[in-house]
Design a protein that fits this description.
By secondary structure, the protein is an alpha/beta fold. It has one domain. The strands form three sheets. It has a six-stranded mixed sheet with strand order 6-5-4-1-12-13, covered by helices on one side. A five-stranded mixed sheet has the order 7-8-9-11-10, covered by helices on one side. It is globular. It binds zinc ion (ZN).
Length: 291
Amino acid sequence: MSRIILALQSDKHAGHVVGLCNPATMLPADDEVGRPTPMPVALTPFQEALWEMYRQDVEAVLDFADGDKVIVFDCGDQTHGHKYPDNQMSNRVADQFIIARYNWEPWMRRSNVLTFRFAKGTGSHTFGEGSSEMILADMLSLAWQGLSIDVHYHGVAEVAQGIRIDYAHHGPGPGMRDWTNGNQVRYYIKSLVLEQRRIGKNPCQLYCRGHRHAFVHEALLSDYWDGELHDFHVFTLPSYCGMGAYGHQATFSAPYQWFGTVAVEIIDGEIGRFKPFVHCRDIRTWEELYE
Ligand SMILES: [Zn+2]
């Protein structure tokens, strides 16, 4: 039996005060005569909770893999960038890369996790043209030998004979209303599949997108084409970043937020189980104002 696991995650926004940050991160500071002295980073309470979710999710994927090969796809915005100067952990650009590199620690030193593919995120969060993802790929390759890391705006990877995943940062949102949740994502995959056939190419079986910080799994199931039934799946990925002022504005004060990693099992060249290791959090502040 051949079995591999795909781990899909996105939007860690290193450097933001509610972005992902490993508590082991050390940032350089100078001592009294200018010698660089690594200093432990100070996490916000939100970041401590977020790191615990992330650490658990990586462990859950590794447990699910049970020693089988894992390929990690990160769909972009590994750093927060400097276009929006509010809520930064520091003003130094280099710090964002150091924090983002430490965020990969839980995946490292595992003999079954050697392949990583990064999608380039939004320019404003990645110092333009995917700079963050490109720099991080180099940093990780230098720090750990034997890794296969590549960066693309929009990648298609064949992960087993005939099984392909299409990954990119930007994609559809979850929908404006609860009763429309997922509709745009469903239209999106239907369109992608039809478009691929129209131009004479085989559609991918899996699609994943970041950017919207929202978890949606939609599918085009039992699609009859050329005498056979086909299934297609799309995931918009939750983030590992909380909401700052812009997030509350852009989501019209969404009361819930999702975080997590989606694992996809491929067995003997067929798609197996989907394991969404995700967390839904009520982000409102609840209180009782009576005696
Ligand atoms: Zn993002």
